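comment on this one:
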Amino acid sequence: MINEDRLWNRLMELGEIGKQPSGGITRLSFTKEERAAKEKVASYMKEAGLAVYEDAVGNLLGRKEGKDPEAAVVLVGSHLDSVYNGGMFDGPLGVLSAVEVLQTMNERGVETKHPIEVVAFTDEEGARFSYGMIGSRGMAGTLSEEELVHQDKHGISIAEAMKAAGLDPSEIGKAARRKGSVKAYVELHIEQGRVLEQANLPVGIVTGIAGLVWAKFTVEGKAEHAGATPMPIRRDPLVAAAQIIQMIEQEAKKTGTTVGTVGQMQVFPGGINVIPARVEFSLDLRDIDAAVRDNVFQSIIERAQQIGQERNVKVTVERLQEMPPVLCSELVQNAAKEACKQLGFDVFSLPSGAAHDGVQLVDLCPIGMIFVRSKDGISHSPEEWSSKEDCAAGANVLYHTVMRLAMGE
C-alpha cells in the first residue's frame, strides 16, 4: 500500500541531520539540529497534503481532516530527537511512516470519518535535560512550569531553551488536549530488542510498556593526594560508587524481569593524582511490574547506604523521574491484529522494555504500538538498523491499523 522507496529515502535524508563523524545521530531538543529536522519533516507533511502547525510545547503536527471534523482525532507518530550518538530509526521511523500513511491515503482519495494527525513529539528521549517526554506531557496536560527548571550540562534550563526556540514557557497549558478529543494514539517504533528477530518476524504488536525510575546517586568522600594517602584511611567515593554499581547489576538480575543501567557518571574534581571528593551517577531502572521495580529500587537504596557506611562516605539518592507501567489498549491491539491478518503477517505480541510517549497519554486516550524488527536488537547506537523491507512492513500494518481506527465509530 505505502510507497516503500519514498519512506526509505526520507529516512535516509532525515538521517543526515545531526549526523556525527562516528555515523551516529545527535539531535537534542531545542537545538538547531532538531529545528532542521522539524523543518524537513514539515516539508514532507506539506507534500503529503497535511495542514502543518506546532503547538505550545513545540510538538510538530500535520492534520488530515475527516468527514466529521468534530470527531475525535486519531493521533499517530513518534519523535525526532535522539540520544547522544544514537541511530537514525529510533523515533523518525514512526513519524515518517505516519506521514507516509496519510500521504498514501490522500493519493488514493481515502476519506475517513475521524480526522488523523501525525505528531512529532518534543524531547521524548530526555538526553539533553535528563527529563524526557516533554511534548507528550504537554499534550496530556501534565507538564508544569515547575518542571521546566531541569538544566542541561551547560546550565541551560528547559524554559530557557524553549524561549530560545521561540516558545513561551508560560503558555505550555495551551498544548493540552481535552479528554475525549483523541480517539486513540498509535506509534510505530523499532523494537530495540531481539524478540522479533529471534522469532523471524518483521512486525509485532505491543502489549504494554515497562515503567521506569530515573535516579541520581551522589557519593561524597574526601579529596586527598593520590600518592600521600595510605589505602586503609582513604574515603574514596569512586571506589564506593563502583561497588554500588556492581550491586545494582546484582539486584536487577534477581527478578529475571528488571533491568538496571548506569549511563552517566561524573567525578569531581577529576584530577589524575587526586582522590575524588564526589561522584555522581545516574540509574535507569525498569520493569513491566511497578511493585517489582519499586522493591528492587528500595533494595538498591538500602544496600547503597550500607556500602556508604562501610566505606565512610555519604550516599544520597535523588529520585528524578518515574513512569508507571502502561498496558496497551485492546482497541488499538485488535486493530493492529486485524491489519496483520489482512497483510498475511503472523499475529505476534510482545511487551516493550523501553518507555515511549504513549505512557504519558494513557489517561487522555487509548494507546498502542507496533514494533518493527531491529537487527541484532541494537538501538541508541550508530549500528541501529532495520531493513527497508521491515520498515515497509511496519508502515503497511500502521496504514491498516490507522484506517480501522479512523473509519469506525
Summary: The first helix runs from residue 4 to 14. The chain has two domains: 4-209+325-407, 211-323. The chain has a mean pLDDT of 96.
